[in-house]
Structure formats: structure tokens, C-alpha cells
Amino acid sequence: MKKALYINIGGEGHLNPTLGLVHDLVQRGDNIVYYSSNDFEEKIKKAGAQFRPINQEAQRELSETMNLMTSHPQEYLLHFLHAMERITDSIFEETSKETYDYILYDAQSLPGKWVAYFYGNHN
Predict the structure, then answer these.
(1) How are strands ordered across the β-sheet holding 102-105?
(2) Gene3D superfamilies, from UniProt (predicted)?
(3) Which residues of the chain have pLDDT under 50?
(4) What's the half-sphere exposure (Cβ side, CA atoms, 13 Å) at 82?
(5) Which CATH architecture has domain 3-122?
(6) d(CA 120, CA 79)
(7) What distances in angstroms separate CA 14 from CA 82, 101, 102, one per listed residue?
(8) Domain residue limits, the chain
């Protein structure tokens, strides 16, 4: 049995395609710890993974600044990157004393890429 970390902070189109894979991995005996927004907790648990919420303050910041994307894109980008950093820091803090056999992440998940890069180069 292997233990995996899955990081996905995107919307339905990012999360839904992963649920079949997660279900299959769990069925073969793998333990999946899945980070995502609270909106997807039930779907993730139904697939058999252990759900962990991404940083709540970062989720709120992303929601509250979404309207800036078209009107003030540079300001939105600063908020977006700040939120990604907070999410990444939270995941590092929560997983620092854990070990994983492999890490999966959405291709557009900066925290997923950063966490996988760090653990791939430092463990």
C-alpha cells in the first residue's frame, strides 16, 4: 500500500477528471491525501480519499479578488500569487512530518508543482 499526496485547487473542470483515478488508486490499496477547496470535500471523500482543505484565508482571498481579473489584472495577479504562497506554506506545514510515496497535482496548480518540486529534490 502506497501513500500519495494529491494537490488540486482548481474548479470542477480540474477536479472532476481526477476522481476516477483517485477511486481506482484507493481500490488498489493506496492511501490518498487530497488537498482542495472546501467546495469539493464530499466528492473527494466519495472517491475514497482523505480530504484536507487548502488554506481558508487563501480561499477567501481568491474569491474576493476574482473580480479584479479583468479590471485590474496586475493587482489580481499579486493577490493570486500571495494566495498560492499561503496555500503552499500551509501544505508544507501540515505535511512536514509525513512521508509520501508519490505526489499528484493538477497541471495548473502552482502549490502542487512547488510541493512536488521541493519533496522531489529534498527527500
Answers:
(1) 50-53, 31-36, 3-7, 102-105
(2) Glycogen Phosphorylase B (3.40.50.2000)
(3) none
(4) 12
(5) 3-Layer(aba) Sandwich (3.40)
(6) 27
(7) 21, 23, 19
(8) 3-122
